[in-house]
Amino acid sequence: MNEEINTFLNSNLLEKYLLGETTFAEEKKVEYYLAEYPQVKKAYNTLQDNLEIVANSHAVEAPKNLLGSILKELDDAPVISIKQRRFSSRWYRYSVAASVIAFLFAGTSYFFYKQNKDLSVENQKIADEVFDLRGDIDSQNKRLSDIMDQLQQLNDPETQKYLLTGNNRAKNLKTVAYINPKEKISMIDVVSLPPLPEDQCYQIWAKVQDKMVSLGILDKADRQLKNIPYTEDALGFEITIEPKGGNHDATVENTVASIELQ
Description:
Distance between the termini: 111 Å
Strand content: 15-25%
Largest sheet: 4 strands, antiparallel
Protein backbone atom coordinates (compact mmCIF):
# COMPACT_ATOMS: atom_id res chain seq x y z
CA MET A 1 0.00 0.00 0.00
CA ASN A 2 1.52 3.27 -1.13
CA GLU A 3 1.87 6.30 1.06
CA GLU A 4 -0.91 8.23 -0.68
CA ILE A 5 -3.52 5.52 0.00
CA ASN A 6 -2.30 5.10 3.57
CA THR A 7 -2.61 8.85 4.17
CA PHE A 8 -6.13 8.84 2.76
CA LEU A 9 -7.25 5.93 4.93
CA ASN A 10 -5.88 7.65 8.03
CA SER A 11 -7.74 10.86 7.23
CA ASN A 12 -11.13 9.48 8.46
CA LEU A 13 -12.77 10.67 5.25
CA LEU A 14 -14.23 7.21 4.67
CA GLU A 15 -15.97 7.29 8.07
CA LYS A 16 -17.29 10.79 7.40
CA TYR A 17 -18.50 9.73 3.94
CA LEU A 18 -20.26 6.69 5.39
CA LEU A 19 -22.00 8.87 7.99
CA GLY A 20 -22.90 11.54 5.43
CA GLU A 21 -20.73 14.23 7.01
CA THR A 22 -18.46 15.04 4.07
CA THR A 23 -18.51 18.28 2.15
CA PHE A 24 -19.12 18.27 -1.60
CA ALA A 25 -15.38 18.44 -2.30
CA GLU A 26 -14.61 15.67 0.22
CA GLU A 27 -17.36 13.50 -1.25
CA LYS A 28 -15.89 13.79 -4.75
CA LYS A 29 -12.45 12.95 -3.39
CA VAL A 30 -13.73 9.84 -1.59
CA GLU A 31 -15.60 8.62 -4.66
CA TYR A 32 -12.48 9.10 -6.75
CA TYR A 33 -10.42 6.94 -4.38
CA LEU A 34 -13.18 4.34 -4.21
CA ALA A 35 -13.22 4.08 -7.98
CA GLU A 36 -9.45 4.05 -8.45
CA TYR A 37 -8.09 2.01 -5.54
CA PRO A 38 -9.33 -1.49 -4.62
CA GLN A 39 -7.71 -1.18 -1.18
CA VAL A 40 -9.88 1.87 -0.42
CA LYS A 41 -13.03 0.12 -1.68
CA LYS A 42 -12.24 -2.89 0.51
CA ALA A 43 -11.73 -0.66 3.57
CA TYR A 44 -15.00 1.13 2.79
CA ASN A 45 -16.91 -2.16 2.52
CA THR A 46 -15.47 -3.31 5.85
CA LEU A 47 -16.54 -0.05 7.51
CA GLN A 48 -20.00 -0.38 6.00
CA ASP A 49 -20.39 -3.98 7.22
CA ASN A 50 -19.29 -3.06 10.74
CA LEU A 51 -21.69 -0.14 10.85
CA GLU A 52 -24.57 -2.35 9.73
CA ILE A 53 -23.74 -4.86 12.46
CA VAL A 54 -23.86 -2.12 15.10
CA ALA A 55 -27.09 -0.69 13.74
CA ASN A 56 -28.81 -4.10 13.41
CA SER A 57 -27.82 -5.20 16.91
CA HIS A 58 -29.87 -2.30 18.31
CA ALA A 59 -32.68 -2.31 15.81
CA VAL A 60 -36.31 -2.82 16.84
CA GLU A 61 -37.93 -5.93 15.39
CA ALA A 62 -40.64 -5.10 12.87
CA PRO A 63 -44.18 -6.54 13.24
CA LYS A 64 -44.55 -9.99 11.70
CA ASN A 65 -47.22 -8.92 9.21
CA LEU A 66 -45.25 -5.91 8.01
CA LEU A 67 -43.46 -7.79 5.25
CA GLY A 68 -46.73 -9.10 3.80
CA SER A 69 -48.22 -5.62 3.81
CA ILE A 70 -45.19 -4.19 2.03
CA LEU A 71 -45.21 -6.92 -0.61
CA LYS A 72 -48.89 -6.38 -1.21
CA GLU A 73 -48.33 -2.66 -1.64
CA LEU A 74 -45.48 -3.35 -4.04
CA ASP A 75 -47.68 -5.65 -6.11
CA ASP A 76 -50.34 -2.96 -6.40
CA ALA A 77 -47.96 -0.08 -7.03
CA PRO A 78 -46.64 0.83 -10.50
CA VAL A 79 -43.05 0.02 -11.29
CA ILE A 80 -40.84 3.07 -11.27
CA SER A 81 -37.35 3.03 -12.65
CA ILE A 82 -34.83 4.44 -10.17
CA LYS A 83 -31.34 5.32 -11.19
CA GLN A 84 -28.97 3.37 -9.01
CA ARG A 85 -26.14 5.31 -7.45
CA ARG A 86 -22.67 4.07 -8.07
CA PHE A 87 -22.08 3.55 -4.37
CA SER A 88 -24.27 3.31 -1.28
CA SER A 89 -26.92 6.04 -1.33
CA ARG A 90 -26.73 9.06 0.90
CA TRP A 91 -30.15 8.19 2.31
CA TYR A 92 -28.85 4.82 3.44
CA ARG A 93 -25.81 6.41 5.02
CA TYR A 94 -27.99 8.95 6.79
CA SER A 95 -30.36 6.32 8.16
CA VAL A 96 -27.58 4.09 9.43
CA ALA A 97 -25.67 7.06 10.81
CA ALA A 98 -28.79 8.36 12.52
CA SER A 99 -29.40 4.96 14.12
CA VAL A 100 -25.84 4.76 15.41
CA ILE A 101 -25.83 8.35 16.65
CA ALA A 102 -29.18 7.84 18.39
CA PHE A 103 -27.89 4.70 20.05
CA LEU A 104 -24.66 6.37 21.12
CA PHE A 105 -26.57 9.39 22.44
CA ALA A 106 -28.96 7.21 24.41
CA GLY A 107 -26.15 5.09 25.78
CA THR A 108 -24.07 8.12 26.69
CA SER A 109 -27.04 9.87 28.30
CA TYR A 110 -27.86 6.82 30.41
CA PHE A 111 -24.21 6.39 31.36
CA PHE A 112 -23.88 9.97 32.58
CA TYR A 113 -27.28 9.82 34.29
CA LYS A 114 -26.27 6.71 36.19
CA GLN A 115 -22.85 8.14 36.98
CA ASN A 116 -24.43 11.34 38.25
CA LYS A 117 -26.95 9.42 40.33
CA ASP A 118 -24.28 7.16 41.81
CA LEU A 119 -22.09 10.18 42.50
CA SER A 120 -24.96 11.98 44.22
CA VAL A 121 -25.63 8.95 46.43
CA GLU A 122 -21.93 8.61 47.22
CA ASN A 123 -21.61 12.32 47.98
CA GLN A 124 -24.62 12.17 50.32
CA LYS A 125 -23.17 9.12 52.03
CA ILE A 126 -19.83 10.86 52.52
CA ALA A 127 -21.60 14.01 53.75
CA ASP A 128 -23.57 11.95 56.29
CA GLU A 129 -20.42 10.20 57.45
CA VAL A 130 -18.59 13.50 57.79
CA PHE A 131 -21.56 14.97 59.68
CA ASP A 132 -21.66 11.97 62.05
CA LEU A 133 -17.90 12.08 62.48
CA ARG A 134 -18.03 15.80 63.18
CA GLY A 135 -20.76 15.17 65.76
CA ASP A 136 -18.67 12.43 67.38
CA ILE A 137 -15.64 14.71 67.46
CA ASP A 138 -17.65 17.55 69.01
CA SER A 139 -19.11 15.15 71.58
CA GLN A 140 -15.69 13.73 72.44
CA ASN A 141 -14.18 17.21 72.65
CA LYS A 142 -16.94 18.31 75.04
CA ARG A 143 -16.49 15.21 77.14
CA LEU A 144 -12.73 15.75 77.23
CA SER A 145 -13.27 19.39 78.17
CA ASP A 146 -15.61 18.37 81.01
CA ILE A 147 -13.09 15.84 82.28
CA MET A 148 -10.31 18.43 82.22
CA ASP A 149 -12.50 20.90 84.12
CA GLN A 150 -13.30 18.28 86.74
CA LEU A 151 -9.63 17.37 87.13
CA GLN A 152 -8.75 21.01 87.60
CA GLN A 153 -11.48 21.34 90.22
CA LEU A 154 -10.31 18.24 92.08
CA ASN A 155 -6.72 19.45 92.01
CA ASP A 156 -7.69 22.90 93.26
CA PRO A 157 -6.31 23.38 96.83
CA GLU A 158 -9.64 24.98 97.79
CA THR A 159 -11.59 21.79 96.97
CA GLN A 160 -12.60 19.83 100.05
CA LYS A 161 -13.34 16.11 100.00
CA TYR A 162 -16.10 14.45 102.07
CA LEU A 163 -16.78 10.72 102.29
CA LEU A 164 -20.34 9.58 102.95
CA THR A 165 -20.79 5.97 104.06
CA GLY A 166 -24.03 4.15 104.74
CA ASN A 167 -25.44 3.19 108.12
CA ASN A 168 -27.03 -0.15 109.05
CA ARG A 169 -29.85 0.37 106.52
CA ALA A 170 -27.38 0.71 103.60
CA LYS A 171 -24.02 -0.69 104.71
CA ASN A 172 -22.55 -0.83 101.20
CA LEU A 173 -23.45 2.77 100.35
CA LYS A 174 -20.43 4.91 99.56
CA THR A 175 -20.24 8.33 97.94
CA VAL A 176 -17.62 11.08 97.83
CA ALA A 177 -18.56 14.76 97.77
CA TYR A 178 -16.22 17.51 96.58
CA ILE A 179 -16.94 21.11 97.61
CA ASN A 180 -15.10 24.22 96.44
CA PRO A 181 -16.56 27.24 98.29
CA LYS A 182 -14.28 29.64 96.42
CA GLU A 183 -15.45 28.56 92.95
CA LYS A 184 -18.90 27.61 94.30
CA ILE A 185 -18.72 24.15 92.80
CA SER A 186 -20.13 20.90 94.19
CA MET A 187 -19.50 17.42 92.77
CA ILE A 188 -20.34 13.92 93.89
CA ASP A 189 -18.89 10.56 92.98
CA VAL A 190 -21.27 7.65 93.51
CA VAL A 191 -19.02 4.72 94.38
CA SER A 192 -21.66 2.15 95.35
CA LEU A 193 -25.40 2.08 96.10
CA PRO A 194 -27.19 -0.92 97.62
CA PRO A 195 -30.24 -2.05 95.61
CA LEU A 196 -33.68 -0.74 96.55
CA PRO A 197 -37.24 -1.82 95.70
CA GLU A 198 -38.48 -0.40 92.40
CA ASP A 199 -40.79 2.06 94.20
CA GLN A 200 -37.91 3.68 96.15
CA CYS A 201 -34.82 5.77 95.40
CA TYR A 202 -31.87 7.49 97.06
CA GLN A 203 -32.00 11.29 97.35
CA ILE A 204 -29.21 13.61 98.50
CA TRP A 205 -29.87 16.75 100.52
CA ALA A 206 -27.92 19.76 101.75
CA LYS A 207 -28.59 20.87 105.32
CA VAL A 208 -29.06 24.64 105.45
CA GLN A 209 -29.88 25.97 108.94
CA ASP A 210 -33.33 24.52 109.72
CA LYS A 211 -34.23 23.06 106.33
CA MET A 212 -33.10 20.44 103.80
CA VAL A 213 -32.47 21.39 100.18
CA SER A 214 -32.73 18.65 97.55
CA LEU A 215 -29.64 18.19 95.39
CA GLY A 216 -31.12 15.42 93.26
CA ILE A 217 -31.68 11.70 93.05
CA LEU A 218 -28.79 9.24 93.17
CA ASP A 219 -28.85 6.23 90.89
CA LYS A 220 -26.45 3.36 90.33
CA ALA A 221 -26.19 4.57 86.76
CA ASP A 222 -24.56 7.74 88.14
CA ARG A 223 -21.39 5.91 89.13
CA GLN A 224 -19.24 8.71 87.84
CA LEU A 225 -18.13 12.13 88.98
CA LYS A 226 -20.91 14.60 88.30
CA ASN A 227 -21.84 18.14 89.27
CA ILE A 228 -24.61 18.82 91.80
CA PRO A 229 -26.13 22.21 92.72
CA TYR A 230 -23.86 24.27 94.96
CA THR A 231 -25.62 25.37 98.15
CA GLU A 232 -24.36 28.45 99.93
CA ASP A 233 -23.87 28.07 103.71
CA ALA A 234 -24.54 24.34 103.61
CA LEU A 235 -23.87 22.72 107.02
CA GLY A 236 -23.78 19.15 105.78
CA PHE A 237 -25.13 16.46 103.46
CA GLU A 238 -27.66 13.69 104.00
CA ILE A 239 -28.80 10.81 101.84
CA THR A 240 -32.28 9.44 102.44
CA ILE A 241 -34.55 6.77 101.00
CA GLU A 242 -37.55 8.35 99.30
CA PRO A 243 -40.44 7.24 97.04
CA LYS A 244 -39.53 6.70 93.42
CA GLY A 245 -39.07 10.01 91.62
CA GLY A 246 -37.92 11.86 94.76
CA ASN A 247 -39.62 13.89 97.44
CA HIS A 248 -40.10 17.61 98.13
CA ASP A 249 -39.25 17.18 101.79
CA ALA A 250 -36.62 14.91 103.25
CA THR A 251 -37.81 11.85 105.16
CA VAL A 252 -35.35 12.23 108.04
CA GLU A 253 -36.23 8.85 109.60
CA ASN A 254 -35.07 7.21 106.35
CA THR A 255 -31.59 8.76 106.45
CA VAL A 256 -28.92 6.25 105.43
CA ALA A 257 -25.81 8.52 105.34
CA SER A 258 -24.87 11.97 106.63
CA ILE A 259 -21.84 14.17 107.13
CA GLU A 260 -21.12 17.59 108.62
CA LEU A 261 -19.17 20.10 106.55
CA GLN A 262 -16.20 21.90 108.03
